[in-house]
């Protein structure tokens, strides 16, 4: 098959619910190839999610380290809010007086997109209200507050939402992104952290206010939610989510694809579990799992291949070799399934 679309054009077709020429293949774990999209924070938010950690705009301290592969997490037992009924005394909105949005947009585009023909400029509007709230209080106290003090939590979320709306409006105006990223993990590997009922009552209406702004600009919406979050997805699709990222294998992805078709693009759908025989791995078995994923999720579009071996030890030569098999097989299939 001869491809006529660039990597980015083909990827954005999937994000818009259109039929692509070929299956986009994510290369996030490859340092040699340009990624499909940038998945970045605008510089106004600072670099707290980076490898150095730091404070987020609300004052929550994030830490990192080699043991967690330099992912940034709220500092344990250093919560800025211990009683949700006292949030008005503690939580203060960030002040961005004098911030040069136009200059920041130019600098961020240059920073995050090295090849505009290959990488879509996708940024977040800091609408991750659940994670922000849990960052204030921690999981134990935060989840108890959601169930015991729902009215106070909702008033706090409305206060936080004004900040998300401010970021989103300016992001759309100055950055002209090619995608909007909502990153808000609300599920574990097995189940959501809160019931779908509470999720729909508390979070969905507030997400919608941000996403309505994005939909008005015809910008595709990417929703990041790890774990088994399929119970929460229908309401998110209703308010405009176009791409589920990462759609992890513990969800009923075949059922979701049958129900929503290209309306919801599945970005992910693959993982190869490290076998008990590690480091002995059957290459053909690895490649067959990739082929099986394509058979289930690629037909009629709406699929972006994204996945790897279930190991974060990316520098391990054997991990690199297995991930290389996965990427090679995915690329081979990419150009053939829609012939």
From TrEMBL:
<dbReference type="InterPro" id="IPR000257">
    <property type="entry name" value="Uroporphyrinogen_deCOase"/>
</dbReference>
<dbReference type="InterPro" id="IPR038071">
    <property type="entry name" value="UROD/MetE-like_sf"/>
</dbReference>
<protein>
    <submittedName>
        <fullName>Veratrol--corrinoid protein metyltransferase</fullName>
    </submittedName>
</protein>
<dbReference type="GO" id="GO:0004853">
    <property type="term" value="F:uroporphyrinogen decarboxylase activity"/>
</dbReference>
<dbReference type="GO" id="GO:0006779">
    <property type="term" value="P:porphyrin-containing compound biosynthetic process"/>
</dbReference>
<feature type="domain" description="Uroporphyrinogen decarboxylase (URO-D)">
    <location>
        <begin position="138"/>
        <end position="306"/>
    </location>
</feature>
<dbReference type="Pfam" id="PF01208">
    <property type="entry name" value="URO-D"/>
</dbReference>
<dbReference type="InterPro" id="IPR052024">
    <property type="entry name" value="Methanogen_methyltrans"/>
</dbReference>
């Amino acid at each position: 098959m001869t491809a006529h679309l660039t990597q980015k054009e083909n990827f954005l077709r999937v994000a818009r619910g259109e039929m692509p020429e070929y299956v986009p293949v994510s290369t996030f774990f490859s340092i040699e190839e340009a990624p499909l999209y940038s998945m970045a924070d605008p510089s106004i938010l600072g670099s707290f999610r980076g490898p150095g950690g730091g404070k987020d705009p609300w004052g929550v301290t994030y830490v990192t380290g080699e043991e967690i592969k330099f992912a940034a997490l709220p500092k344990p037992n250093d919560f800025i809010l211990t009683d949700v009924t006292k949030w008005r005394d503690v939580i203060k909105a960030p002040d961005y007086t004098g911030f040069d949005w136009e200059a920041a947009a130019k600098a961020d585009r240059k920073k995050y997109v090295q090849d505009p023909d290959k990488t879509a400029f996708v940024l977040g509007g800091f609408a991750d209200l659940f994670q922000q709230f849990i960052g204030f209080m921690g999981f134990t106290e935060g989840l108890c507050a959601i169930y015991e003090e729902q009215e106070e939590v909702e008033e706090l979320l409305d206060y936080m939402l004004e900040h998300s709306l401010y970021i989103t409006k300016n992001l759309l105006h100055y950055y002209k992104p090619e995608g909007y990223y909502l990153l808000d993990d609300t599920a574990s590997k097995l189940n959501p952290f809160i019931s779908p009922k509470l999720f729909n009552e508390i979070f969905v209406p507030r997400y919608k206010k941000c996403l309505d702004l994005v939909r008005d600009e015809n910008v595709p919406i990417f929703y990041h939610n790890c774990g088994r979050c399929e119970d929460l997805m229908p309401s998110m699709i209703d308010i405009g989510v176009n791409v589920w990222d990462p759609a992890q294998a513990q969800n009923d992805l075949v059922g979701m694809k049958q129900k929503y078709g290209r309306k919801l693009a599945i970005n992910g759908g693959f993982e190869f579990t490290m076998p008990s025989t590690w480091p002995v791995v059957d290459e053909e078995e690895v490649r067959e799992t990739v082929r099986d994923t394509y058979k289930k999720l690629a037909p009629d579009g709406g699929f972006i291949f994204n996945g790897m071996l279930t190991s974060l030890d990316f520098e391990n030569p054997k991990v690199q070799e297995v991930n290389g098999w996965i990427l090679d097989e995915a690329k081979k299939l990419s150009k053939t399934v829609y012939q």
